[in-house]
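Teaching note: in complex prediction, the entire set of molecules is handled at once rather than each chain in isolation. The prompt given to students was simply: 'Predict the structure of this complex.' The entities are:
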Amino acid sequence: MSALTALLVRDMRLAVRVGGGALMGVLFFLVVVTIMPFALGPDLALLKRIGPAILWLAALLASLLALDRLFASDHDDGSLDLILMSRAPLELVVAVKGLAHWLTTGLPLIIAAPLIGLFLNLDPPAEATLVLTLLVGTPALTFIGLIGAAIAVALRRGGLLLAVIVLPLTVPVLIFGVAAANAAVTGPIPFGTPFTILCALTLASLVVGPFAAAAALRQEME
Amino acid sequence: MALTDLANPSRFLRLANRAIPWLAGVTVIAFAFGINQAMVAPDDYQQGATVKIMYLHVPSAWLGMLCWGLMTLAALGTLVWRHPLADVTAKAAAPIGAAFTLLCLITGSLWGRPEWGTYWVWDARLTSELILFLLYLGVIALWRTVDDPSRAARAVAILTLVGAIDLPIIKFSVDWWNTLHQGASVFRIGGSTIYPTILLPLFVMALAFTLLFVTLVVAAMRNEIMRRRVRTLRLMQASAAS
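The expected output is the structure of the full assembly:
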């Protein structure tokens, strides 16, 4: 088993076993979606119209959840030093940690999204496109978040700062994710236009995220 | 004089102390001339006198973006060359850039009220400018969270480089999306669409704003160097006392 596979298995095992892991993310997702009708009123027509936006917002907030511990817990117990000293390139290591984060927070949300979409009165075609946009877009949220997680690694109270740093950077993903999900149901614009831009954003973040996060880790840990 | 000569903070301080009065004087003259030009410039045939908000709004928008550009260069200076003045520049520039961006947002919303009938719309240009403001606040928050200045500088540098992606989005937002904010009208292919009698005062005001920006950044850099010296002296005092 190579070092990177071992790291992936370790990170996923930690995420699943410590603090409820994947289920906790889904639970948070469910709670956020559930409180929305309390604030907006249980108007099913309104919920149907803004449902994709609510689910995207909930996914964005849920992906922030585990992010502040992503590198910080490794930093606390010293394993980050070992990771930095290993022969595997740090960019790949960071990307693998991002992949583990997405598999344990992003993917469960996507699996749960159709069920939770029922609460928001979404019909099957809307749910299908929503799942597709989440599947394409949530990796971008994770990989942009990696940068913030790496910058805030050594801070004692990095949680709020992380949100302040990361959320403005995720705005384009949110705009085009929601635009694509809406376009398929209502919009005058074709689904393909915002969706391809969403794909481009994800691909760009897959490249920029690991490099920026690795650079931040190297600078922080000297 | 090379950039490496400025690496010595004492030399920079001497230069800054000599330059700041001159810079401040030239700024005042440029503003006097620019405001006078703006006052005598003709009103717009449609907007009337409200068009004069442009003389504050457009230069502050340019400076808000230029400041992030300067911080991006400083970030490269921090990460690549470890130039000691680069992180001082980045730290000094951030609040000033935030102030210009806020000024741009405020004047823009005051201008939007009579012309568009609303203080704020969620239009691409306005939204990306607001995000720039939030990025500034994030950078300032990060500066304040990390105790050690040189470690804070490296963390901020990476955030600055990533945030620079917002600059082209602001610039081209009016071309990429169909916005309420007007399209590019000063720097565009085929020349400006603004009549020279209004355009020339705008350039004078832009020059005045740039001079103000340079003066403020140099003064803030001087203060930051002094602040770091005080910090070092305090640390030395504390370690001598123990």
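Point out the following to students. The radius of gyration of chain B is 20 Å. Chain B has a mean pLDDT of 85.
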